[in-house]
Amino acid sequence: MRALLVFALAGVLSVVAQTTLLERLSFLPAAPDLIVILCVYLGLHYHSVGGATGAFLLGYLLDTFSGSPPGLYCLAMTLVFAMVYLVSKRLWVENPVTAVAAVAVGCGVKITTVMAYFALAAPRNVAWLGLTRALLFEALFALVLSPLAFTALDSNLRRPRRKRAHAVD
Amino acid sequence: MLGLLRRHSTPLATVALLLASLALLVTNSSGGRRVDPLGVVFLEVVTPIAHLSRRVSSSLADTWNSYVDLVGARQEREWLRSRVRDLEAEADAAGAVARENERLTELLELRESLPGDAVAARITSADASGLFRTATLNKGERAGVAKGFAVVTPGGVVGKVVATSPHAARILLLDDHASGVDALVRRTRARGIVEGGSQAGCRLKYVKRREDIRVGDKVITSGLDGIFPKGMPIGEIVHLGEEEHGLYRTAEIRPAVDFSKLEEVLVVAPPNREVPPVPGQAEGGG
Q1: Is any Cβ of chain A less than 8 angstroms from the Cβ of B34?
Q2: What is the spatial distance between Cα B228 and Cα B235, in angstroms, rounded to a whole number?
Q3: What is the mean pLDDT of residues B200-223?
Q4: Which of A107, A160, A164, B193 has the fewest CB atoms in 10 Å of its CB?
Q5: Which residues on A lie below 8 Å from B14 (Cβ)?
Q6: What's the mean pLDDT in B136-144?
Q7: Nearest beta carbon to residue A52 from set B10, B28, B61
């Protein structure tokens, strides 16, 4: 229950931050994608139906406020969760570097998904350079912020770091 | 079967959610009816918070922008102050040039009006001791300046040359106690000698008792000492001596020239003597 509340709050705050606070930092070429960090965290530490659903809902939340067709970020974030889940099930020693690496994997999955969607759905209407640039900057900022976000989530969820993360399920 | 499902619940749920996402995306991308079952809920929940956040961020942004503007205004103020200082300095310099031009023009006019030769010179320094009233000129023997020459300005008598070197000269100012100039009271032509060293600056001495002199009378050079041109202003009587006996009267004179503000002067050869030719110039200049 606590995890549900924390993720709900974190998701809302992340979307609010992305849509109101960070967009004011006009010198940044793109706002950091905080939702992907949350999804990676879920994929690392919540190997459960709840974790997968959380990633789906976070993606949906992003869809609601991003102007993308509903389902795009649902798909992307669920894929992020799935990929991180699979990787962390097989090879995982938890430390800050691997956490950032997991975020990098998550960002890669998200970028691939979004670009694949645009390539399939509307290849002629896309400014590929601008899109790639925005996605890369989102990913870069997410990587930079991920240690901080992970620490905040760890402290709020009172989750001691583990050698190997297995289900809350 | 149930155990298998439980064991793989997470992958299965993930696949289900992926399929649901894909279905949602395909449906919404096909251009048909928009399917967005949770969007309304999320909008309702998040929008008030976003609104609040936007207001807070707007306030913060406004505060920040005000701060940035303030810093900009401060920098601009410093720049403007510096600019004002520069312009004031330029204006002062221009004013000084204009005043100097005015003085030199007056000096030139005076030079043309004088009977003898004259050399324009600049005061370079005052008396080193403070006990005497002398000054140094930047022109000397090479410029034709010689001992005993009169030093005047358009305002009046300054003093006379007491020492020279090739490129400089020392002058004894009118208000030094050792100076003496043959003088006349302009109104009555009463004659006397002006000496320095008094409280007012100079003193008119040896005026016959029966002569009519008053406070406010202008005193000029008589030209009889053979040094100063006739009719140059010396000063103004500011106080009459109170001697009740004796042949002569005295009067305090305020000099016509403010010696503390002297800059350019004219060195005038005595009427019966011309400025000697400048060595080198005479041969070269013809």
Answers
A1: yes
A2: 14
A3: 90
A4: A160
A5: 52, 78, 81-82, 85
A6: 88
A7: B10
Please tell me the total number of residues recorded for chain B in this structure.
286
Express each pLDDT in A45-71 by its tens digit.
Answer: 888 898 999 999 999 888 877 777 788
Q: Does B84 touch chain A (CB under 8 A)?
A: no
CA distances B216 to A74, B202, B203, B204, B243, Å, are: 107, 14, 14, 13, 19
3-state secondary structure of A152: helix
With b meaning 16 or more CB within 10 Å and e meaning fewer, what string describes B227-236?
bbbeebbbbb
Tokens of B93: 């310099």
Q: How many residues does chain A have?
A: 169
Enumerate the domain spans of chain A.
32-155
**Closest of B4, B14, B19 to residue A85, by C-alpha:** B14
Look at residues B13, B52, B50, B23 and name the one whose alpha carbon lies nearest to residue A64. B50
Instruction: Determine contact: B188 vs chain A, CB below 8 A.
Output: no
B21, A71: Cβ pair inside 8 Å? yes
User: Hey, what amino acid is at B237?
Assistant: I
Sequence-separated (6 or more) residues with CB below 8 Å from residue B243: B249, B250
How many Å apart are CA A121 and CA B48, to the nearest integer? Answer: 33
Query: Mind listing the pLDDT tens digit for each residue in B43-67?
Result: 778 778 877 877 887 888 888 888 9
Q: How far apart are CA A70 and CA A89, in angstroms?
A: 30
A53 contacts in B (CB within 8 Å)? Answer: 13, 17
Q: Please judge whether B18 and A75 are an interchain contact, meaning their C-beta atoms are less than 8 angstroms apart.
A: yes
Q: What is the mean pLDDT of residues A133-154?
A: 86
Rg for chain A (alpha carbons), in Å? 15
In the chain, the amino acid numbered A99 is A
Output the CA angle A150-A152-A154, nearest 5 degrees: 65
B45 touches chain A (CB under 8 A): yes
For B17, which of A21, A72, A78 is closest by C-beta distance? A78
Q: For residues B142 and B276, is the Cβ–Cβ distance under 8 A?
A: no
Tell me the chain B residues in contact with residue A12 when contact means C-beta distances shorter than 8 Å: 45-46, 49
Decide if A21 contacts B53 (C-beta within 8 A). yes
Residue with tokens 């649901």: B20
Tokens of B41: 């809920």
Distance CA B31, CA B25 (A): 11
* ipTM entry: 0.80
CA–CA distance, B128 with B65 (Å, rounded to integer): 61
